[in-house]
Design goal:
Blueprint: E1 2-3, H1 17-23, H2 29-37, H3 54-67, E2 70-71, E3 74-78, H4 89-92, E4 93-98, E5 101-106, E6 109-110, H5 111-114, E7 127-128, H6 130-136, H7 139-144, H8 172-177, E8 185-186, H9 196-205
Parallel strand pairs: 1-8
Antiparallel strand pairs: 2-3, 4-5, 6-7
Helix pairs in contact: 1-2, 2-3
Length: 212
């Protein structure tokens, strides 16, 4: 099961953002039409060559300007979720009871923790996934998911893994896993970073039989 995984840089993040922003009425639709008409292309972390034409550069700059106040991970949520809670220890950590013992967990991730490879992004201390982390660590939710008491607290990302950018992203793994395991891929319906539109496009590019 993969949640909001950046899979193919030809579709994910920047390539599918203009269409997503236009369909959310975040930007005027004519900006998206200009972007498409002029065959403009921009990519995450410059993993592919970007468009150099003045019209593409100015259109992309305008799109970025109009969406600067939004959270790319949730287009219905502003960039600042109410203050620099990452520096507040009481707000940063939560606690839950597992097998009669109190356990502490990190509430969500800051931008630098969530995408340590994205050096171009400024971390303003805003937390992502704090509400989700609280929910997944509730005793009643753990019980509903049949999580064993031997399993520790739930966190958004593993602090034990080395996360880094791959030029091939993770598109390659689907051909390897095909016919070996069942795969569930889902995208957030308000996510601008890995939007559903991009996910649908790279899934279609696999050219696998569609049964439903």
């Amino acid at each position: 099961m993969v949640g909001n995984g950046a899979t193919n840089w030809s579709y994910d993040v920047e390539p599918s953002f203009p269409a997503t922003a236009a369909n959310f009425n975040v930007i005027p639709y004519h900006l998206y039409e200009t972007f498409e008409k002029n065959d403009c292309h921009f990519y995450f972390m410059d993993v592919r060559p970007a468009s150099k034409s003045p019209i593409c550069i100015s259109t992309w700059a305008r799109i970025q300007e109009l969406t600067a106040h939004l959270n790319w991970y949730d287009l219905y949520r502003p960039v600042d979720n109410g203050g620099n809670v990452a520096s507040n220890e009481e707000a940063r950590y939560g606690q839950t009871t597992i097998d009669g013992k109190v356990h502490y967990y990190k509430r969500g991730m800051t931008q630098s923790e969530y995408t340590p490879w994205a050096n171009h992004i400024v971390d303003n201390g805003t937390l992502y996934g704090d509400f989700l982390t609280d929910y997944m660590n509730r005793p009643d939710v753990r019980q509903a998911f049949h999580v064993s008491d031997k399993v520790g607290v739930w966190e958004m990302c593993s602090s034990k893994l080395d996360y880094h950018v791959q030029n091939e992203a993770s598109y390659w793994i689907y051909g390897v896993l095909r016919d070996q395991v069942k795969i569930l891929f889902y995208s957030g319906d308000t996510d601008g970073a890995v939007p559903t539109w991009g996910s649908k496009q790279w899934i279609a590019s696999l050219n696998w039989p569609v049964t439903e």
